[in-house]
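Posting this for the archive.
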Amino acid sequence: MKIAAIVFFLTLIASSVRWAWWRSSVPGLRVLCYHKIGRPPAGSRLKELWVSPEKFRLQIKYLLSRGYATLHFSDLVKARNGGTPLPEKAVLITFDDGYENNYLNAWPVLKELGAKGNIFVVSDTIGKANLWHDPATEPWVNMATLAQLREMQASGVIEYGSHTLSHPRLSALPAEDAAWEISESKRRLETAFGRKISAFAYPYGDGADVPALRACALGAGYALDFSFRQGKTPWPWDRDASAIDRLFIRGGDGLWDLALQLSRGTSRL
């Protein structure tokens, strides 16, 4: 029996090391990255991009109950430009793409609980669908309409950044086309929302490590650019060194994963 107990204990320890609990906490800016809040449609191969509304509510309540201060892009820009320290437990909640389910399922939770959110919008798919997916392999879902996006902005809960015009892999495009995707999306979103767009996220994270593409983004006038690389970014941020990393929240993540992401910069190996 003792041998069986020892084997069970060692098996439990071995299976648990895939979580990052044994790593030391790391400093840096916490930027959560979500995509869709809802339930995946039948046939979806990207189920991990969907976080259920119930889980999302629990995650936001967890943040607020533990003293995390949610920020807008504009808060981060002001802190960086003014050289003022961020709150000790600052966190940005970001969503990629601009789905209708962000309006239906995420915004009401943020509004009710008093949290701030930020959405990177693919400007040419507003009111359409996620056209960058092949519907034969990944079902299309609705994107938020312009009216919905404006309503969220007017509430003071949501701010917007750019996620290009059409969600391409920027490094696969000719240089002039990539530059157009980056700069023209900013111009169109500023026209649509009547305010400056200060943040940019590279679709698929592609281009965040390419100096020429980063130069396009920063040269277009974005104050902040965000990767899809997992981790926390030292703050104050060295803008010339790298884009800001993020913490990808998966559909299967629980509160334990969230806690590890916030402290260790990752939850699982």
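The helical segments are 2-16, 53-65, 73-82, 100-113, 146-154, 175-193, 211-219, 255-264. Confidence is low (pLDDT under 50) at residues 7-16.
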